[in-house]
Amino acid sequence: MIEVRNLRKQFGSTVAVNDVSFRVQTGEIIGLLGPNGSGKTTIMRILTGFFPPTAGTAWVGGLSVEADSIAVRRLIGYLPESVVLYPDIPVARYLRFCGEVKDLTGNKLRERIEAVIEAVGLGEVRHREIGKLSKGYRQRVGLAQALIAEPALLILDEPTVGLDPSQVIEIRNLIRNLRGQSTILLSTHILHEVSLACDRVIIIHRGDIIAEDTAEGLNRRVQGVFQTLVRVDGPLPEVVGALRSLPGVDEVIEDAVPSDAATRLRIVSREGEPVRKAIARAIVDRGWSLIEVSPIQLTLEDLFVRLVRQQPSGH
């Protein structure tokens, strides 16, 4: 459904997307993950024809997003991060307008309005003006307009941004319920979101793809990496130097917000219990006060941080 080759977008001297390539199969739900400013929105805007790439190529449904821009747009439903809604128009009338823009008429238009209202749960507010709706309902209206023409590809840019936890769950469930109806490209900076809703995850940082895998595959990458919390009363430079020199220790990270007078360190290692024993022995042998040595459960967020840390400093 999507094929991107060596895509690059530059704004003046700023490189927003740097030689990015990836493919999305028909029917997949793909999470495009990265912090704010990583290039996610730029990629989505290129795919939707908002602006052309500086270099590289992109196809949607076998069509070039540059040479066949209008035809590509007919295949896409798009929910931008800040969707344009008309506050003085009732929900159903707005959806009728969106359907008409997509060349829907007659019974087909009426059927699609009813279908998307039911799909995203807008029945009780269908006659209310959009400007009087909650943030959660406005986001549902944005999703409904993206779905109105039964798009082959649904592009959702930060669909849960600004929502409260219950609204996030609702939108996430709506997205999962669309599985099989459309191919979905979903951008977010929240790793937990893509791990729950997506078949694969593409992690992007400062315009570069730094990982591409299933959520399960990313979890497997976490396995075999261990973290240990160490709380010790001792001179910080000497403690850090001693622990960094231990076999099996990859990183020693100081806690930026200690909870007490003791120094808190996070140790990243290739082994668990053997390294923890060596840490305790090294601290006690030097006469420092060992307060705590305990394992830390790694998460996908930890993997993301590690992947970012591994990037060259120039990126």
Please write out the topology.
Layout: E1 2-11, E2 14-24, E3 29-33, H1 40-47, E4 55-60, E5 63-64, H2 69-75, E6 76-79, H3 91-101, H4 106-119, H5 135-147, E7 153-157, H6 165-177, E8 183-188, H7 191-197, E9 200-205, E10 208-213, H8 215-222, E11 226-233, H9 236-244, E12 249-254, E13 263-269, H10 273-285, E14 289-296, H11 300-309
Helix pairs in contact: 3-4
Verbal overview:
This protein is an alpha/beta fold and about 325 residues long. It folds into two domains: about 220 residues, 3-Layer(aba) Sandwich (Rossmann fold), CATH 3.40.50.300; about 70 residues, 2-Layer Sandwich (Alpha-Beta Plaits). The strands form three sheets. The protein has a six-stranded mixed sheet with strand order 6-7-8-3-9-10, sandwiched between helices. Helix 3 crosses helix 4. The longest helix has 14 residues. The chain is elongated and about 85 Å long.
Describe the structure using short key phrases:
315 residues; alpha/beta; Rossmann fold; Alpha-Beta Plaits; 2 domains; 6-stranded mixed beta sheet; 4-stranded antiparallel beta sheet; 11 helices; 36% helix; elongated
